[in-house]
Amino acid sequence: MKFISNIFWLFVAVLFIFSGLIKINDPVGTAIKLEEYFEVFSTDIAPFFKSLEPYSLFLSIFLSAAEIVLGVALLVRFKLKAVLWLLLVMIVFFTFLTFYSAYFNKVTDCGCFGDAIKLTPWESFTKDIVLLVMIVVLLFTQQYLQPFLRASSGAIITIITAALSVAVGWYAYEHLPYIDFRAYKVSNNIPTLMKPSEPLRYKYIMTKNGQDEEFEDYPMDTTYTYKAMVAINPEAGPKITDFNVWNDEGDHTQEVLTGKKLLIIVQRVDKTQQENMGDINKLVKAAEAAGITPLVVTSNSAADFEKFRHEVNLAVPYYFGDDTVLKTIIRSSPGLVLLQDGTVKGKWHHNDTPDIEEVKELVSTDEI
Questions:
Q1: CATH code, 275
Q2: What's the CA gap between 111 and 67, in Å, rounded?
Q3: Are 222 and 251 found together in one domain?
Q4: Model's pTM, two decimal places?
Q5: What is the pLDDT of residues 207-264, one digit of tens each?
Q6: Structural domain that includes position 130
Q7: How far apart are the first and last CA of the chain?
Q8: Could you tell me if residue 197 is inside a domain?
Q9: Closest by alpha carbon to 315, among 301, 305, 325?
């Protein structure tokens, strides 16, 4: 039993640290996922969940940091009993979220490991059940996990971990994620990712005499009843399926993905910061002079964006995009994305607005 207890101790500690680090790497993305849950729960369970939405960012950093801190505290066996009870409370909460998502098919991606590892709701629920069992076992086998550090050393490590976790999360919010796991990361080519990496292959699920059978070719036997068609190699499907840019004149997606473009992403004007718009306007003028076309992509209505652009003197053409897609492209509003023939050459938070020399260095030097 001592061996099992030590295996569970190491597994739970490392997994909580890993999960927290992945989420705190992208606190805005984690906050977006929390907002999804609050929206669903406010409709299905109780309206008060809606009131939690303004605190999504705070909860994102707090919960992610808590995972890391509890994982580290467990790893160094500091205040073991209290840490295990806190982990139990946390995993029960997470298990409820993932079960609700899976059973009612409400939130199709729990965000347990951010964008780094995608799990289906049932996979997430299974993972939480396994962790729940392990933590319960650890609670009953604490005698096999004797502390190997003095209490003061464990306290210092835990406090430093807490401070560093919050600082890391806040810095990622004020800038961009340290590691970008999304399809729009720097160096990716958007048009390529909008196509399958290889031809998709399908199998047909047919029913006969109450039994399901699978076929790679549609059966000619008319006694079979069609049930479903499922991709055999879904991983070969397009990684980007919803990138579109348009205005009242029509679709401009291909135009945006051709040539050198500096995209200013404005997700929602009511949540868009204005303090760095002077730097962005300066960059816009320099980009135009350098042969790089600046344009805005926003999810707002024309009326709302017109009011905003006059307030900040943003004199560039603007187009429309889906709000969820724009949040996926960059975790900043406004945010800057440099494209060359659809390849992402650079991404900047508005707090890190580059100068024109930095932008020019990232695109081809041919006649700009």
A1: 3.40.30.10
A2: 14
A3: no
A4: 0.86
A5: 988 899 999 889 888 899 999 898 888 888 899 999 999 999 999 999 999 999 999 9
A6: 2-174
A7: 68
A8: no
A9: 305
